[in-house]
Amino acid sequence: MKDLLLNFLVILAPLFLYQILAADRMYGKDLLKMKWWIGVMYGVAACLCMFFPINMGDEFIWDLRWVPFLIAILYGGVRGGIAAGAILLLCRLYLGGGAAFYTVLIDVVLLLPLLLRIRPWFHTYSLRGKIVLAGLLSVMTYLLIMLSIGFYFVYRGDVWYLFQHSLEFYLFFGLLYLLSMTASVLLLENMQENARIRAEIQKSEKLQIITQLAASIAHEVRNPLTVVRGFIQLASSTMDEQNRRYMHTAIEELDRAEFIISDYLNFAKPELDRLERVEAGDVLKHVTNLMSSYATMQGAALSVEAEPGLQLMADSVKLKQVIMNLIKNSVEASSAGGGKIDVLARRSGEHVVIEVIDNGPGMTPEELERLGSPFYSTKEKGTGLGLMVSFRIIEAMHGKLEFWSEPGDGTTAAITIPTR
Ligand code: ADP
Ligand code: MG
Fold first, then answer.
1. In which domain, by residue range, is 335 found?
2. CB of 319 within 8 A of CB of 397?
3. pTM
4. Which residue has the higher pLDDT, 16 or 326?
5. Is the pLDDT of residue 273 over 70?
């Protein structure tokens, strides 16, 4: 029993280490570097399982070493799997090579590619799916290990030894595999989810401060502008023709500044109460009318396709602004020429999805993570406000704005808005 608990603890230890040392700091970044570490930590855990095995009274010795190995592959990918596998094998060699080493080698070589195949799938499932799949995998691994142990004993010429144990004995160990694997996956997933939520909260707090600040500054600047405009108007009535023309230009420029500021104020406080039923096709037509010449000028081809009769609940002016922001980003991203931008609208259950797809340079996961942060821009003349504002507007419409991108493979921005 003590051995059993020790094995469990050893398997869970990397989780706690990760949580304490890295979860928040590492969230969304440097996961590639982490993968080696995942492999190393779980490899060490597997070794500790081997060093402190579960002794069942007689000479039959057992441990849970394959559970950390499975986790290393599922969460650490190729790197994690290779690191953990190597450590496991080295450890086995240290404890004594020979036939036992080769059975472990064969198991590692069999499991690694198989699990790597399943891994991409695994990560598309929901929490419950992941747990079920992890459970299945642990049972499958257990059977494989049993098989190889069987062969090992056949090789040693004392198979009868295995039959000395009851079926319950083997079922018990199978259950241990199942339990420790599903528990680990459950904890790991929960930890990642928590880290994600914390990151999101931090982001939205930052956003709130910056928008409040910006809105109040904009407001403060607007007042003196109005005063200046009034005095210029007054003064210009006593001026000669020449000066009056100058003053006229000054007023025009002031109006432009005023316009930009009120526009920004609008953005900073997206209002909720003007949601109305709008037709996606109309919105897209209007936006592309405005944007197509701009796109052509920048050497990008803009094409639109909307399912007919798509209704959605939105503020059409602001929705247009968001789509224009997205198209503008796509055009700017493919400024090297040969840009192709597709704007699509389709229905998806109770929602309408509007996608802006470009074939530009794309973004790395780190860059994707930063989208929508205030003033995050990689452009010389960028403001880094476009997407921040877009996220807020779409949120205010009860929708969501998502990005998919790979470096060198273009970017897809998707707006999802309820139909009612
Ligand atoms: P700005 O356009 O002023 O830089 P945004 O908030 O609109 O600010 O965009 C922020 C950053 O996100 C951009 O500087 C760019 O690096 C990146 N980005 C946005 N859309 C795309 C895209 N379609 N392809 C590549 N990068 C993009
Ligand atoms: Mg922009």
1. 276-418
2. yes
3. 0.57
4. 326
5. no
